[in-house]
Specification:
The protein is mostly helical and 675 residues long. It has 4 domains: 41 residues; 131 residues, no CATH class; 230 residues, no CATH class; 95 residues, no CATH class. It is built from 29 helices and no strands. Helix 3 packs across helix 8 and helix 11 packs across helix 23. The radius of gyration is 27 Å and the shape is globular.
Length: 675
């Protein structure tokens, strides 16, 4: 049958279409068929979509490693070993296009240890020894688990021989798409890499400086304006990158010195940047790598996760804002000077389109035509065109090349850590540890929900002290996978609960990665910076529990999809929207806002004047009671909270003068004489 006859049979009124529409339909048919053939032949084969990213990333990473001239040949040799090892894996899987091999060959037993060693070495060079030691622990455990005594509990496992364990490891992690080629790499290579290019193009164009000026203009007039500007710029930057450490390094060199000059202590200045940058991993629409992991793990469209995260992310930054505000009042620090918060020029106002247009395109393809790869691709094109049109300095091949080179470097670094994460996750799964741990969770879930949540939160914080948030999330979720349903709350709620604590662990001492990155910029103590960052990130410890007991904060805004003509949200991973009301959402927002006000003033020890110890304790108790989802407790707590806040204002109608502030009680975790 001719192509035209086929189309006529599918489209009954084909002849009634205009000649232009008929040609367009025929053209689309040919293009669609051609794309499908290209997709089947090139895009879908596992060997290419997983092998090429890890191959190029590892080679680039080895060649870019710093080394003295006499040792540079070692990096070149390792890059060649990478090229041979992963080319063979890619070619093998591409040739069969099945994603697995029936059996492991002798070559696989050689290549897999080499690939593992290359992965661990790169991880050590980029991210330090902790995650490498963690991975080595699970490798040793995989072989030794059958020899552990019964009293080790969940760690005691299979009695397979060394040869059987080795064969299982090679089959699962090399002959099949597990381990370093597992779910983390699949999510990143399929969804995340294009967003890295998207953010790199915007920052290389000069939009970062414009972002800082916008932040100064918006928030500089508030008390403690320099710190507020840092929070705002990191929040805005977080919508584009979603990476805490890179946020700290890129914006901290500009914001931290300004915060210090305004009168804040060095440790607090560094902590502000660390806390604000950490929140970028929670701020839609990009939200960092971990949000894509959530979408892939629970089988939910990414747009629903973005909408669910809006209110919790805003509350995170509200908590940071309030802590900065009351600390500034305690120290008598005013707003930014007028010359530091100038109005935008007409040209700069026009250049704001470099944010509006790409984010608009990104949002359209995320929400209206839900496709994460398509959203990232068209968002990147919009960012590139906008940057070239609005920033004349960016219109040079060298600037564009540097933008893509930086994107490639960032992508390579992410692929390295993702490969290590996949190896750890695979070891935990194949060893059987997850099943045994899940049985414990099922038993624990039969008790109080709060106790279960506290255990999960502590696990995420402890693991996250040395691991990136993505690794922490995957390990916690995979380890508890079989027992998650027993907890009795929607999957999305529990997964976002884990995400929050995995992210917050980067500012939680004793190993607070984001805080430690900011401390040298400020010339501050890393540990003291970590303590201050944890205080500034207070909302990050509170909000996860709030969304569990007040689900309207996560789910009520999902009704937006119905308002804009979409189908009703229906997913087993989410709560039924009809089960929560706007009244529930309103009360949750009010209670959480007041509670954060009480908590931040209690930790700072200051509102209009210093707070007595009994006042601080009363505020903590009242704020906690406000968040309890029992009207008989929360309503009286709101009355008590109002009495505490307005009573303090009546007793202190004017704030204390700056010279009297030295008598104020230091906030939690701060020594009076520190720095």
């Amino acid at each position: 049958m001719r192509l035209r006859d086929q189309i006529e049979s599918m489209v009954a009124d084909f002849e009634e279409l205009s000649r232009r529409d008929q040609r367009l339909l025929l053209k689309n048919h040919w293009l669609g068929a051609g794309f499908k053939a290209f997709e089947r032949g090139f895009l879908l084969p596992t060997g290419l979509i997983l092998g090429l990213p890890i191959l190029f990333s590892f080679v680039i990473s080895f060649l870019k490693l710093p080394a003295s001239p006499q040792w540079r040949w070692v990096n070149t040799l390792l890059a060649c070993a990478t090229l041979v090892t992963f080319t063979m894996w890619t070619a093998t899987l591409f040739s069969i296009d099945a994603g697995l091999l029936p059996n492991a060959t002798a070559t696989d037993y050689i290549l897999f240890p080499v690939a593992t060693a290359l992965t661990l070495y790169l991880t050590w060079r980029h991210f330090g020894g902790f995650i490498v030691a963690f991975c080595v622990f699970w490798i040793v455990y995989f072989f030794m688990r059958g020899h552990l005594p019964d009293w080790t509990g969940v760690f005691a496992g299979s009695e397979a021989s060394f040869a059987q364990n080795l064969r299982s490891m090679v089959l699962n992690f090399w002959s099949q798409t597990g381990g370093m080629f597992g779910k983390p790499l699949q999510v990143v290579s399929g969804n995340v890499l294009i967003f890295i290019v998207f953010g790199a193009v915007l920052m290389a164009s000069g939009a970062g400086d414009l972002l800082m000026k916008i932040a100064n203009r918006l928030t500089g007039r508030f008390t403690g304006g320099a710190a507020h500007a840092a929070v705002a710029s990191s929040a805005l930057f977080g919508t584009l990158s979603g990476a805490a450490i890179s946020n700290v390094v890129s914006t901290g060199v500009m914001t931290i010195p300004v915060i210090k000059r305004s009168g804040f202590r060095p440790a607090f200045a560094a902590a502000v940047e660390a806390s604000a940058s950490t929140g970028g991993q929670l701020m839609p629409p990009v939200m960092g790598v971990v949000a894509f992991f959530v979408a892939g793990q629970i089988g939910l469209e990414y747009r629903y996760i973005v909408v669910a995260a809006i209110i919790p992310a805003l509350f995170y930054y509200l908590g940071t804002f309030l802590t900065v505000y009351f600390e500034a009042r305690r120290l008598g620090i005013g707003p930014l000077p007028q010359e530091a918060r100038k109005r935008l020029t007409p040209v700069e106002r026009l250049q704001c389109l470099v944010f509006i247009v790409p984010l608009g395109v990104l949002s359209y393809f995320l929400f209206v035509q839900p496709s994460v790869p398509k959203a990232g691709f068209y968002g990147f094109l919009a960012a590139l065109v906008s940057a070239l049109a609005l920033f004349p300095a960016f219109r040079s091949w060298s600037r564009v090349f540097r933008a893509f080179a930086e994107a490639g470097r960032m992508a390579a670094t992410i692929i390295v850590i993702v490969a290590a994460i996949g190896l750890i996750v695979g070891l935990i799964q194949v060893s059987g540890f997850t099943g045994r741990l899940s049985l414990l969770l099922v038993q624990l879930a039969s008790g109080p929900l709060l106790l279960t949540l506290i255990v999960v939160a502590l696990g995420a914080i402890v693991l996250g002290m040395g691991l990136p948030p993505g690794a922490t999330y995957f390990i916690i979720v995979i380890a508890l996978s079989s027992g998650i349903e027993a907890v009795g709350i929607p999957q999305l709620t529990l997964h976002l609960f884990v995400v929050f604590f995995a992210v917050i662990s980067t500012v939680t001492p004793p190993v607070a990665l984001a805080a430690f990155a900011a401390a040298p910029i400020a010339g501050a103590s890393p540990m003291h910076t970590g303590l201050q960052a944890a205080r500034l990130s207070l909302a990050g410890f509170v909000i996860p529990f709030v969304v569990v007991y007040h689900p309207a904060m996560l789910y009520k805004l999902q009704v937006l999809f119905e308002w804009f003509g979409g189908e009703p949200v229906d997913s087993a991973a989410m709560m039924d929207i009809s089960a929560v009301s706007w009244t529930d959402l309103g009360w949750a927002v009010l209670a959480t806002s007041v509670a954060l006000w009480l908590f931040t003033t209690a930790l700072t020890g200051f509102e209009r004047n210093r707070l007595l110890p009994v006042e601080r304790l009363a505020r903590v108790v009242a704020g906690t009671a406000l968040l309890i989802p029992i009207t008989g407790i929360a309503a009286p707590a709101l009355v008590v909270a109002a009495a505490l806040i307005f009573g303090h204002r009546i007793l202190h109608p004017k704030r204390a003068a700056p010279e009297t502030l030295g008598t104020a009680m230091p906030p939690a975790g701060e020594d009076k004489n520190s720095e």
